[in-house]
Write a structure and sequence with these properties.
By secondary structure, this protein is mainly alpha-helical. The protein has 3 domains: 2-67; 81-258, Orthogonal Bundle (Hypothetical protein af1432), CATH 1.10.3210; 270-329, Winged helix-like DNA-binding domain superfamily/Winged helix DNA-binding domain (Arc Repressor Mutant, subunit A, Orthogonal Bundle), CATH 1.10.10. The chain has helices at 2-18, 21-31, 38-46, 48-53, 60-67, 77-92, 101-112, 119-131, 141-144, 152-170, 176-183, 205-220, 231-243, 249-258, 275-285, 290-297, 301-315, 320-329. Helix 7 packs antiparallel against helix 8, helix 8 crosses helix 11 (176-183) and helix 13 (231-243) runs antiparallel to helix 14. The longest helix is centred in the middle third of the chain and has 19 residues, at 152-170.
Length: 337
């Protein structure tokens, strides 16, 4: 029922905002009994004047808060990082190419900040990293999943995600102090970044660290239009960006160190997963079918099915969505590990 109500409301509001109420009512009537629940559609048609009357004056954010049923749960400081990580993971589900990105950026930024920032900045950076891409929800999945180069108009839309992230956090009293930091994760020291084109003098150390952590993770992760690059090559590219004046050199060096590239650190596997199971689980989380995984790894489909089932048993899940969430929570999407 909730989904049916949302379908009617979405159709009505879309046409009311882009045309007028008469057009909205006509479209709801036309779609009734097909895309839309006929009973709910008729209810909206009968009460159109009342339901559309305050549309321009409703604060949707406040309306949702007011509608929350009691008891209202408050998140304490000790829970904040965990809640932020969960929201980051949910945003990353926007596209199979993004899964695990937010959590990895937050953890890497916090680890890198240890030698550059005050101790009380570390948790702030971690939470900011978890939430830095919230604004992706305001951009069409067709853009994040496009296999080719983006058009100029599509690039402009994609770049708005940093602004959207900033505005989301600015509305939340407990998180508004993070809004500026989150909104600057694509800024560059020479002013070539977005969305404000700030320069080094206007960027805090935490902002510079977050930008480097996000850049490094983006380089090593696959995207719809290209494969991720090796960790060592990403480190070289990060240093090149610093030498060119686009990224902060100290922040870039700290991120490279935190990524373990100069220490040769190899992470242990959770749930006693084998390297092959991690490899298969990573591809499951990316949205590949068993047949596609078999082709990618040059294995038989039955062998892949065995690996998937064994991994499910070890990590205690029964669905691909559960496997994807486990992979994000345990950093298994990091192909450098």
């Amino acid at each position: 029922m909730t989904a049916r109500v949302m379908q009617v409301a979405f159709t009505a509001v879309m046409f009311a905002l882009h045309a007028n109420i008469d057009v909205a009512v006509a479209e709801v009537r036309r779609r009734a009994g097909m895309q839309l629940d006929p009973g709910l559609a008729e209810l909206l048609i009968q009460r159109a004047d009342e339901l559309f009357g305050d549309l321009d004056h409703i604060d949707a954010y406040q309306a949702v808060l007011n509608a929350e049923p009691a008891p209202v749960r408050r998140v304490g400081q000790a829970e904040l990082a965990g809640v932020a990580r969960t929201f980051g993971n949910l945003v990353d589900l926007k596209s199979p190419w993004l899964r695990g990105h937010s959590a990895a950026v937050g953890d890497l930024a916090a680890a890198a900040a240890g030698t550059l920032c005050r101790s009380d900045d570390l948790d702030t950076l971690r939470i900011a990293g978890y939430l830095h891409d919230l604004g992706r929800v305001g951009v069409s999945s067709a853009i994040w999943d496009k296999p080719g180069a983006l058009s100029a108009a599509e690039r402009d839309q994609a770049r708005l995600h940093a602004y959207h992230s900033e505005r989301i956090l600015a509305r939340i009293p407990r998180l508004m102090s993070l809004a500026t930091l989150v909104g600057q994760h694509h800024e560059r020291s020479d002013g070539s970044g977005y969305h404000r084109g700030l320069t080094a003098a206007q960027l805090s150390i935490p902002s510079r660290v977050l930008a480097c952590a996000d850049a490094y993770r983006t380089m090593i992760e696959d995207r719809a239009h290209r494969k991720g690059i090796a960790a060592a090559r990403a480190a070289d590219r990060l240093e090149a960006e610093a030498h060119a004046g686009r990224l902060d050199a100290d922040a870039a060096g700290a991120v490279i160190d935190a990524a373990g590239l100069r220490r040769g650190v190899r992470r242990s596997r959770p749930a006693d997963l084998t390297d092959r199971q991690v490899e298969v689980l990573r591809l499951v989380a990316r949205g590949l079918s068993n047949a596609e995984i078999a082709d990618r790894l040059v294995l038989s489909r039955r062998t892949v099915e065995h690996h998937v089932q064994d991994a499910y048993i070890k990590i205690g899940v029964a669905t691909r969505a559960g496997a994807a969430m486990f992979a994000m929570q345990h950093g298994l999407l990091d192909q450098s590990g």
